[in-house]
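[[Encoded backbone]]
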Amino acid sequence: VYSSQEIMRYTVIRGSFISYLLYLLVCGFTPLYKSGGWGKFSVYEIMSFDIYQETLNADNRIRGMIRETTLDHSRSLTKMGDSQVYMKLENHQYTGSFKLRGAMNKILSLGQEDMNRGVVAASSGNHGAAVAYTLNKLNIPGRVYVPEDASPTKIETIQDYGVEVLVEGSDCVITEAVARQYSEMHGLTFVSPYNDSLVVAGQGTIAVELQHQLDKIDAVFVSLGGGGLISGISGYLKKVNPGVKIIGCSPENSPVMIRSIKAGEILDIESQPTLSDGTAGGVEKDAITFNLCKKLVDDFILVTEEEIAESMRLFIEKEHLLIEGAAAVAIAGFLKQKSDYQDQKVVIIVCGGNIGLETFKMIL
């Protein structure tokens, strides 16, 4: 026998219509009815609470497997913005990116039988490396699918962890479809980079650390692609600090989530080349992060390629740290609207530091 809370948790994690009906039968229809009918109600209206609980569970689950990254005060950004600016350095995480948190939480949540069967992922970048690292650490079989245009360096990084790499598809959408199909045919677990509540909760452990590292945060700037990172952070922080403002930052060349939220539905928008390859690409039609971002993110900012490049150069010059384009997007977003946050305590999530040599040469 399951409690209503357990059933709702299953509903949120699986996104299952059947489990949603089960919740209605156990808990009754009346609490779920809203004026205006049933159509507007969804489990996402209470999902921030679930993210909070799931994030605490994730933090306990992965704590010994990941690195608690530092929160550094930035003198240069503080001076430029007339506010107190802090940098959450996920570029120092194992594998060089925040992605390890979500992948680790998802895989550690599996039962032993599922672990023994194996795991499948699709990614040419940080998510693929995070999954491969986790599989290597836990001695779990698996494979990572990459698109045809994946860089040899990134493929080699994934292979270095002893995970099988298969090249499929001319773009990431096709690659992911092939990977999902393979996982379903063979009964393997597919690890999404963002469209999974366990992955979202894993990314949210950044917020658990922030809560202990800094009091009374006024605003957090987060790079926004598929929305897993910002959903996890905002879902947790909004629970412990309802007044905090969460700002999502995306490149103008790949504004899929921001444009989708403005349109009220997930759009199929072709991305243009961008330095922020970590946030580039489409959003799945059933992505749980769409509703989460719509509900939990306070503001959205689009930045140009030049603004991204300038932020990368600034970080190298002033902070003496290498960051990837996706991390620079959040910095560029802050600099673009810094006048709105004077005398406030601001955190910028520096989401990763995996930059290729050619990209590094190009921005200098």
Remarks:
- The CA atoms of residues 81 and 339 lie 7 Å apart.
- The first helix runs from residue 4 to 14.
- Residues 4-61 form one domain.
- The chain is about 50% helix and 15% strand.
